[in-house]
Amino acid sequence: MSKTVRTYGDYTIKAGGGSSGSDRIILDASEIRVPGSLTVEGTQTTLNSATLTIEDKFIEVNRNNSTAGTEDGGVFFNQGSNNHQIFYYDADQSEFVVGVTTQDSDATSITNITPGNLRIAAPGQSDHATTKAYVDAQIAGGGFSIGFTGDDSTTVSVTTGNTVDIAGGSNISTAAAEPDTITVNLNNDLTNITSITSNVSNGNLTLATNGTGDVVVDDTLTFSAAASTPAANTVTKIYNKTAGGGGTGLFFLNSNINSGSEGELISKSKATALAIALG
């Protein structure tokens, strides 16, 4: 027959030394119900049931953690003799991780993790995570968009069906190198160029023709004042500095000419004056 035990105050059932002892209280019944709230204050709760059904809409883990960003938290999946599978939040990295670990579920921080694979469906909208197969299909089918940003911060978007056209026509060659560098060579005329600068400190800038062609200057050529007289070698160097006896300020030197001493190109007026003076 049913029986009710009622008390008008706290009611304690204690076996032996209580929580500090080793004696147990066993409730042996086909079903045990707790109509009120149940609080377990021990260090471990073990459920040996075959099926766990929870009515709560949300499950909180890592309860009583009061310091942000210090403790990892998640779910361990027992794999028998194999290492644990785990899905958890990495507090140090502020990210979720799925993988394999050799650590146990009583760890407060996961320091040994081998990331695993996560299988998901193809994305249905822009904020969904995507699969490798979906990305590969989009690239192969041209279903992706990229953007190019110019010096004025204006971005030009390139979407499906558009063509990226780099001036130079068919005379374009590219070379890829790590890390993530693509070099584009335009083997054609360059227009609208206002400055060409070497990217190497104190490096040379070379203008070279193909075969026996000449470097042609179709306009005024300006020489800025040289900071110092360059060193002479077997090529002829032309540079500008304060005008001397030649009256031009345009000097040249070559190690094979006048023992490498610099000389000044002479102006027409100076040449005329010297011709008259020398009769």
Describe this structure in words.
This protein has 279 residues and is mostly beta strands. Among the domains are: 63-120, no CATH class; 221-279, no CATH class. Helix content is 7%, strand content 18%. The chain is built from two helices and eleven strands; from the N terminus they run ββββαβββββββα. The longest helix has 10 residues, at 132-141. The chain is rod-shaped.
Main features:
279 residues; 11 strands; four-stranded antiparallel beta sheet; mainly beta; rod-shaped
Secondary structure layout:
Blueprint: E1 73-77, E2 84-90, E3 95-101, E4 114-115, H1 132-141, E5 146-149, E6 155-158, E7 172-177, E8 181-186, E9 237-240, E10 250-253, E11 263-264, H2 268-277
Antiparallel strand pairs: 1-2, 2-3, 3-4, 5-6, 7-8, 9-10, 10-11
**How far from one another are the termini?**
148 Å
Q: Give the overall form.
A: rod-shaped
Sequence of secondary-structure elements: EEEEHEEEEEEEH
State the strand order across the main sheet: 1-2-3-4
pLDDT < 50 stretches: none
